[in-house]
């Protein structure tokens, strides 16, 4: 069930947590105890800025890992809140670090996983550099970032929820995106096709 390399850990390294909507897997500033795997439900990782604004860092759904970077930090740097009833597995930080020291294959696979996360964050930085809200929202949806609520997506890509909703409506009206349900959108056409008026 666990993705590599965490599937190589012994079962006693795992703790199952059952979370109701609104429960925290951890809070910003808590001492790090491990990384997490979402069995069911959804977890939103949110960081409070010094100005008091909430910034979404990740929307983790079933099959996703979160808080891997906490392996190298003494304290969690964000809140992990269940946005739906959820079951998560916490994998012991000490068990992971011990296995990393003793097993070169495990260590290499963990390094590869963390490198993939860096690539993902660089993609997010690229999205933030796009000035047009419409284009930013289109690229975020096309790359699969709309995995939670529209409000969470807006926070993740640095827009107000109002700007995000307006962009989604414009993109849907112009045929670039299709809407399949509340808060559910998918890429339909490229922006270039919509500009050219092609079907």
TrEMBL record:
Gene Ontology CC terms: cytosol
Region feature Disordered, mapped onto this chain: 177-199
SMART domains per record: cNMP
Domain Cyclic nucleotide-binding: 1-74
GO molecular function: DNA-binding transcription factor activity
Xref: InterPro entries: cNMP-bd_dom, cNMP-bd_dom_sf, Env_Response_Regulators, RmlC-like_jellyroll, WH_DNA-bd_sf
Pfam families: cNMP_binding
Gene3D superfamilies: Jelly Rolls (2.60.120.10)
Region forming the signal peptide: none
Extent of Basic and acidic residues compositional bias: 181-192
Protein name as catalogued: Cyclic nucleotide-binding domain-containing protein
């Amino acid at each position: 069930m666990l993705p590599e390399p965490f599937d190589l850990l012994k079962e006693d390294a795992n703790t199952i947590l059952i979370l109701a909507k609104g429960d925290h897997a951890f809070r910003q500033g808590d001492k790090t105890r491990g990384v997490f795997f979402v069995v069911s439900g959804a977890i939103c990782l949110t960081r409070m800025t010094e100005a008091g604004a909430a910034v979404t860092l990740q929307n983790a759904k079933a099959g996703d890992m979160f808080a891997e970077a906490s392996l190298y930090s003494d304290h969690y740097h964000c809140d992990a809140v269940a946005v739906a009833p959820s079951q998560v597995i916490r994998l012991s930080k000490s068990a992971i670090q011990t296995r990393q020291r003793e097993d070169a294959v495990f260590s290499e696979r963990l390094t590869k996983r963390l490198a993939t996360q860096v690539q993902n964050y660089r993609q997010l930085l690229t999205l933030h550099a796009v000035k047009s809200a419409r284009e930013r929202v289109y690229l975020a949806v096309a790359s699969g970032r709309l995995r939670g609520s529209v409000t969470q997506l807006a926070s993740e890509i640095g827009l107000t929820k109002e700007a995000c909703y307006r962009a989604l409506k414009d993109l849907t009206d112009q045929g670039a995106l299709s809407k399949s349900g509340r808060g559910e959108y998918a890429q339909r056409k490229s922006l270039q096709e919509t500009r050219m008026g092609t079907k």
